[in-house]
C-alpha cells in the first residue's frame, strides 16, 4: 500500500482488504454495511465506486477530501475535475466474444463522420420472434458483443445530404437510399431520441415519417419538438395521406412494397414521396410543446352528446363473473389449475352446459370457442381434458402446428391485423389466450406503464363488433402483502383494462387439495362469492363449496404461515468466503468443487451447493453483489458453478425487439 493510499483510506470507516481492493463504509448514506469499493491503479489514480450508486463527488466531500486527492502526485484539482467522468464508474468487465448463433436476416453498419466502422446491429429471428444484437470489432479485428461503449450517431449520417428524411428503423433508411432519397434514423427506435441526434441534423431540412402506430407518432412528436428551431425546417409526412388503408404499424418500406404490388414503378414511388415532402406543412409546436397537430387525423363526428347514447345493460357470458364482449383476466400461481378452470368454462360454452362458475338455473346455447395456447399441447393434453369436461369438440377451434408450415400463427398478436381477421372469420363467443405472454407483440415491454393498455385496447371494440369475449390467462406474483392490481404479474395495466379479474390459489399451503377462485374485480356487478374447488381425475374441476374469504385473505394467511417458520441459520463462514472471493470491479466464476477445495470441505454447511448458495443471495445483495448459480464455463471446461458480480455492472447482450 502506498503512503498516499494509506492516507486516503484513513478518511473512511470499516476498511477491509478484498482481493487487491478495499471495501469501506460509504460516508454518504452512512450505513454500517461496506458498500464502497476503493482501488488504486497503476498510474496512481484512486477509483471509487459505491454499490448504492452514491456519486463520487458526494463521497469525496463527505469524507472531507477533494477531487484532487484521487490523483496523488500527478494531478491538480483542475485536472481532477476534467478526469472525473473517467473515474466515476469502475472499469467495466471485458466484452464477451461474439459468435454467430442464428441466421442473420439483416445487418446495419454504424460509422463515424470519417466512415470508420463503430458497431453493427444484426437482426435475426429466434423462435419466430424478431431480435436484435449489437457487435463491434477491436483493433485486431475480433468481434465482441455490444456497441463498444461508444455514443452511436444517426444511422447513415455519414452520407447525409439536404433535404433529409427522418424515418423509424434502419430498414426504412436503406429503402429510401435505394430510391435515391437521403434518410437517417436513430439507433434504438421509437422513444430513444437523444440531444446528439438533434445536433447532427442542425441546419438541415428535415421531413419526419412516423410509423403508423402510437409509439411512432409519439417518437415523431419528440423529434419534431427537439429539432424545431435547430433544423432549417421541420415537416411531418403522415403515410396514411398517401395510403388510406395503411395497416397498424405500417412504415415507409411497407408503403413502397404496397405501391409496387399495385404496379407503380420505383421512380414514380420515390418521386411521390419527394413531392409529398415538398407539399407537407411546416411543423409548428403547440404552446405546451407536447403535441403534433399535423399528425392528428380524427373524425370529430365520432363525438356525440350523451343524449344521443343508448343506455344498455351489460350482458354476461358467465353471469356476474365474465361479461360479454369484454376482457376478463384469469390469474394464479403455477399448478393451481388455471388451465383446468378455463377448460371447464370453454367446455360449457361449446356444449351449452354449465361450468363451475354458473348458477344452477343457467341456460345457454352452444357456441364457438377459440382456444389459443403457447403453453400446452392440444393433442397431448388439452383435447383429452376438454373432451372429458364434456366439450362439443366441433365448436372449439385451435391452430394446428402440423399444418402451419410457415409459422403464420406466430403473427397472431394483440393489436395485429391477423388477430382481428381471425376473430372476424370465426366469430367465436369466447377466445382464450393462455398465457397472455405468448400473444404480446415483441416490441411491447409488459412492465412499461400504459404499454399493455394500448396493446390490449383494440380487443374491446373488436369484441363489441363481433360478440366475442376474451379471457386472458396470466400468472399472479408471490410478493408478500400484495393485493388487488399488485397481484397481477408483469403489468398492472392488465387489471386496469379488464372488466373482470378472477384469481385462483390454494386455501392452505400445506394441504393443497382445496383451491379457491375469487372474483377480485367486477366493473358491472358486485364481486361474486368465492368458490372452492379441487382437481379431480384427469384434471377435471370438482366443486367443493363457497367461502367468504377473498384472494387477499387466503394469500395473506399463507404468507403469515410461512413467516412462522424458523429462519435458516446463517452460514457465516460461506458468506465471508463469498465476500472474500468477490471483486467490486469484475465478475468472478467458480465451479462448486473448485470453491470447496479453496475454502474447505465444510464450506457449504452440509447442504447441496446450490441450496446453500441460494440462501446467501440476499446477504450478498446487501453487500452490493449478485450471486447467480448456473452452468458456467471457465476456459474450455464447463460445469455447475456460480458467478459473483457487482450489482448494476452488467449490460444485456441481446435486446428483444
List the helices and strands and how they pair.
Blueprint: H1 3-9, E1 16-18, E2 21-24, E3 36-40, E4 46-50, H2 56-62, H3 77-87, E5 104-111, E6 117-126, E7 129-137, E8 143-145, E9 164-166, H4 170-178, E10 183-184, H5 195-200, E11 205-208, H6 214-227, E12 233-236, H7 252-261, H8 266-279, E13 316-318, E14 322-323, E15 327-332, H9 338-351, E16 369-373, H10 378-388, E17 396-397, H11 417-426, E18 430-434, H12 451-456, H13 459-466, E19 469-475, H14 493-497, E20 500-506, E21 515-522, E22 530-535, E23 541-547, H15 551-563, H16 572-581, E24 588-591, H17 592-599, H18 609-614, H19 617-622, E25 625-634, E26 637-646, E27 654-656
Parallel strand pairs: 9-10, 9-11, 11-12, 15-19, 15-20, 16-17, 16-18, 18-19
Antiparallel strand pairs: 1-2, 2-3, 3-4, 5-6, 6-7, 7-8, 7-27, 13-14, 20-21, 21-22, 22-23, 24-26, 25-26
Helix pairs in contact: 9-10
The main sheet orders its strands as: 17-16-18-19-15-20-21-22-23
How far apart the termini lie comes to 49 Å
Report the structural category: alpha/beta
Radius of gyration: 30 Å
By DSSP (H or I, 4+ residues per run), the number of helices equals: 19
What is the approximate shape? Answer: globular
Give me the count of strands. Answer: 27
Spans of 5+ residues with little confidence (pLDDT < 50)? 74-92, 288-295, 649-657
Largest sheet: 9 strands, mixed
Beta-strand content: 15-25%
